[in-house]
User: What shape does this take?
Amino acid sequence: MRRTENSEKLFKRALESLSGGVNSPVRAFKAVGGTPLYVAKGEGAYIYDVDGNKYLDFCCSWGPLILGHAHPEVVRAVHETALLGTSFGTVHENEVLLAELIKKLCPHIEKLRFVSSGTEAVMSAIRLARGFTRRDKIIKFSGCYHGHSDYLLASAGSGLVTFGIPASGGVPEDFTKHTLIAPLDSEAAVSELFDTYENQIAAVIIEGVPANNGLLMQRKEYLQYLREVSGNHGTLLIFDEVISGFRVGQNGATGMYGIEPDLCTYGKVVGGGLPVGAFGGRKEIMDLLAPDGPVYQAGTLSGNPLAMAAGLATLNFMVKNDGWNKLEKRSAEFTRILEAETKDIPVTIVRCGSIFWIALQEEAPRTAEAILTDAGAKYRRVFAEALDAGIYLAPSAYEVGFVSISHSSDDLAEAARKLGKIMRSLFQI
Ligand SMILES: *Cc1c(COP(=O)(O)O)cnc(C)c1O
Assistant: This one.
């Protein structure tokens, strides 16, 4: 039996001093049951908890760790930088180097700005889009997550296309009334919103690869439609690439589909495990930011040296080692085995580059509404048995998994076989 006493003790203490015992809700394991694992150490593809258990980690800090844990180049860069001071609150060389590297990898980014989280990146990009277009409304899609700023915590009302209603306590209805919500995968829904709110829509924001509610791969024609309809209406198209950026390829969903949004937001991988977000795009839009323009945006620790060093080390390693191709091949082989192992049961493996999702249903859904509602209960068992087998999946049926450069082909093949066995026993085959 796996030991969990030390994690249990720590979590009990945490419940007395941290709200819900955690600093971000999914970490509390409410969706899967059991006690969260207190991680003592990460090394390559593995994490080790305070009870001495070792797990192959498919969460990878929710995506940032594309090189795996404590990668020597990232550790060295952070260490060397820290010796020279962790923050100056002024300009320094590495922020220029990282901005230049991002521009090289993502040619549609003419200018950008760094912030400290994905939430901030999206919030700032939307403010900028509103400032540029002098319009208030935005279109967001149900099933896409864009961080926890007030007006993005909106859910769809009862109609097919609606203005948003608050999806969280503490968010006034007045704050979400400019957030229009449409289901994914429907040109008709978006067209209806553009008809109803003519000349009022500042931006359409979408995860080019929606990966926060399962992995809801969109049709290329649909994304092209969003590009066209936005352009035709003077509306900006924003790709939220916080997960997909530098993950599904060097230029994220933008490069993968060959569709250029007006603005992009980044986070996760771009910080190599330290808190970084970024937003960027067309120069004429980005030039509206303070101090050159009227749209205000700032941050005490924005572009801080440690975070820039980790981001640079991560992206440079990926570039120099053909990282995205390697990850693509290894991840494809992993999901090929997983598919073979689960071919007779109602399980669908969805993959985009090194992002994968185990959908506990016959077909891959394209919309949040098409995810079967019993997924959560089934996933609880898969998750628990995977832990016992030394595999750490994300603690929710709706979260995706990530493969890092440190996951070896052998690690992956073994994990795929173990997971296959667990799922076959779940469906009693
Ligand atoms: C994670 C995520 C965010 C929020 O980023 P934080 O760094 O958690 O604030 C925003 N958008 C997408 C697509 C994300 O995956």
Summary: The chain has two domains: 5-70+322-426, 72-320. The first strand starts at residue 39 and ends at 43.
